[in-house]
Amino acid sequence: MVTMLAMQCPGPGQPLQPIEREIPVPGAGEILLAVSACGVCRTDLHILDGEIPASYPIVPGHEIVGRVIARGPGVDGFAPGDRVGVPWLGHSCGICPYCREGHENLCDRPGFTGATRDGGYATHVVAEAAYCFALPDAFSDVEAAPLLCAGLIGWRAFRMAGAGRRVGLYGFGAAAHILAQVGRWQGREIHAFTRPGDSAGQAFALSLGCAWAGGSDELPPQPLDAAILFAPVGALVPAALKAVRKGGRVVCAGIHMSNIPAFPYADLWGERHILSVANLTREDGKGFLDVAAKVGLRMAVTPFPLSEANQALGRLRTGQIEGAAVLVP
Question: Region 93-105: what's the mean pLDDT?
Fold first, then answer.
């Protein structure tokens, strides 16, 4: 029996455990990948903590870069040896009202990589070929991995924020460090908000071209056209509302957030908007990867061996990662 290695979450509140099992055989429409790299995302922490639905035991990981080693029946477009990216959205039903209206990110019967189907904290993974992406050659495997969630969800959030020139990013981690560079490339003025007192994070933001960087307890020098919240902290919503101009937007880009505290209606008044981002579409992926290839992104990544997945998650939880953490089998 030919086996694979993986780091599996047995259930909510439990650390990942190493497992060895038989390499799966891809079914109809699926491809089997040898994993080259897998990004570590805050969503993985939410899965470990039981804060979002998952099918336990589960192998997390939804920022997967790998190479095709086998194809199931009916697969077109990917051949053995091709480099492929696997994102969070791993399946949509195609028949619910949301899918029929072109909103597969809101599908009533979705499949999510690393949550309802095993993900990339492993040496091998099976994925539906129709939900995978070809990746730009400009990025190494380790650099490409964070593009598949931090980049894709950030891109969708950026689009929902509108065309305003002055944009604030709350929580300057994997997603924000990518989107700050995309924003500058688009000619926008980017303001970075970090944990209060995080001088290193603020210096990192300024090094990527942000016009201003400060703590999340501060107001920017001028009102923002939009604010995007990557940090899963509900108290940042009323803080961001105070930072945006009339008609401005506050976009909550995470899959989970702590409760939003009460705030005066006056802070929302003036036709300010609060929006949430849910998952992604394949159109988002194709659009963002085309842009990423043009921007000349400077990717900040910290690689970890697959066996150190728990340590990587721990450093992410405590804000000790500059940019993105990536596991390498």
Answer: 97
* pLDDT tens, position by position, 134-149: 999 999 999 999 999 9
Residues linked to residue 189 through DSSP beta bridges, in sequence order: 166
Class of the CATH-defined domain 3-148+279-328? alpha beta
Domain boundaries of the chain, sorted by first residue: 3-148+279-328, 152-276
State the burial class of residue 291 (Cβ atoms within 10 Å of its Cβ: 0-12, 13-18, 19+). middle
Given a contact cutoff of 8 angstroms between Cβ atoms, the answer to whether 38 and 63 are in contact is yes
Mean pLDDT throughout 14-33? 97
Residues with Cβ < 8 Å from 285, sequence gap 6 or more? Answer: 87, 133, 148, 152
Half-sphere exposure of residue 191: CA atoms within 13 angstroms, side-chain side: 24
Q: Which of 110, 107, 123, 116 is nearest to 34 (CA)?
A: 123
Place of tokens 């894709």: 152
Mention the CATH class of domain 152-276: alpha beta
pLDDT level of residue 222 (50, 70, 90 thresholds): very high
